[in-house]
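Record type: monomer structure entry
Structure origin: computed from sequence
Chain ID: A
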Amino acid sequence: MNLVLAALYLAASALIIARPLIGVVSLALIVGAWCIAEGVVEVSTAMSQPRLPAWGWMLVSGIAGIVLGLLVLAGWPTAGVWVLGVLVGLNLVFTGISELMIGLAIPQLGLREPPSVTA
């Protein structure tokens, strides 16, 4: 499996280097799908763990990720040129704030490490 994954990474990177514009457009599509997938996971985790302190931050982060992903896909392929940096940056900000708030809430639970989440 690792060999197949390594071959896919090498092929994808070679294509992006050889055809940068197609690479940017393709990456925009991938980032849009990734933001939506990450947002869905965060929303479902927040909804399944409402007793966790600061679960609302995770919910907001997930909703923001879904909205950002939809914006990327709605403007694809023309938005691929500028949208990657803006939306990835915004998604990182929301995810960072969510993770920070969850981390700050952990001492309230009396735990030394984050609780494991089962889907």
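Annotation 1: Residues 80-109 form the longest helix (30 residues).
Annotation 2: The chain has one domain: 25-109.
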